Amino acid sequence: MNLRSKDLISIKDISADEIGHILETAAGFKDVLGRDIKKVPALRGKTTVNLFYEPSTRTRTSFEVAAKRLSTDVINIATSTSSVVKGETLLDTAKTVLALGADIVVIRHKCSGTPHFLARNIDASVVNAGDGTNEHPTQALLDLFTMKEHKGGIQGLEVAIVGDILHSRVAKSNIYALTKLGAKVRLIGPPTFVPDCLKGLGVDLYTDMNAGLEGVDVIMMLRIQLERQGKGFFPSTQEYFRNWGLTAARVSRAKKDAIIMHPGPMNRGIEIASEVADSSRSVILDQVTNGIAVRMAVLYLVSGVRE
Amino acid sequence: MPKELLDRKDIERAITRMAHEIIEKNKGIRSICLVGIQQGGVHLANRLSAKLKEIEGSNIPVGILDISLYRDDLNVRKEQPVVRRTQVPCEINDRKVVLVDDVLFTGRSIRAAMDAIMDLGRPSAIQLAVLVDRGHRELPIKADFVGKNIPTSMEETVTVHLTGDGTEDRVELE
Asked: Which residues on adjacent β-strands are paired with residue A52?
């Protein structure tokens, strides 16, 4: 089976079958990660370029490890040290990268829609590693993979996503993916972060944390972006923690076997209590490992599509 | 109309003989591990393992191996191979690995399987068991245990049907 597109731009645009196919493929790659020799020759001779217009350690490293385990060559371009600071346009940078022989371009950009623009203009496969407040498709895929591993499937799961939904591309990709695969999604946070218009996505909204967590299978915490402080979204980090921070007492509202997720990096004591982050129900480090397997699957699958 | 080359009984006899040959060549089954190549080889590996247990009385580990990431045609195929699980439950270092596949044809799958096995460890030997050898090798590869040699033309297709309980077993040529 092939994906329909040479690119992975958004979860919104792919089908439930395609999501299922990526997750199944990722299971095969997870086997590879458990071996002494964690490398396969599948994409030998191909080149992956990581084009990151926003600071990122975890996603970039994860893509880099995934690409290397598939035997592709990897070139990292961090725009703060490249000719972008000299005023080169995105398309010119991308065309230069292609001239260097790139087969896959992984891009992160602060403007929503950038990966889509790039995908239309170049022949190489484009993988979205996060664009503005729009989507972060591989994060959602690794989150679903982790849920599937712990819960056996996605259909019928009750998933609570807590925090700054409005600005979160992680939340958006997860909402699309989870609803496509038949999970029920609740969004929890202050009304400034969870505005009423989100109801249109087929989810339930809660401002009360305790009510929202009642009986859920999965608690997914989002990072509070501290740069939003003082802009009227929430009064103070202390008050935020008091109302929407994940404490052990609040976790007890969820199902007994509920798992706790966080895309990282965590703000301990702001959105999540340390004891909860380090508890046995936390699968945060599983998410990191699974991220490599899922990204290997994505790189492998997009490079198999010839248009 | 496909022509039936082997029926249930023929396959049963072939598996019995191959099991005896595996035991004879390896002087028992103590140091061997069967590894079936996804998907066709997995059923046959399980059947061989059951037969070996029947004869020798001890369990023999069976692994499954996916070779899609090791194929030599990834860049030219239209349809991308589906990546499946690889699970080899035994330590393969210093063990004899018997690779199992349903049909031996060009030998390219076996080349990929040997590379995949080598990435899992260093077996003391790799042997090859196939139910049908249809000829047309493109690589210098030869099976150690063969159920049946069937001369074919390039245009023909050999299909092996094996089921868990053995009731629907047959080999067809089309």
From this structure: A78, A108
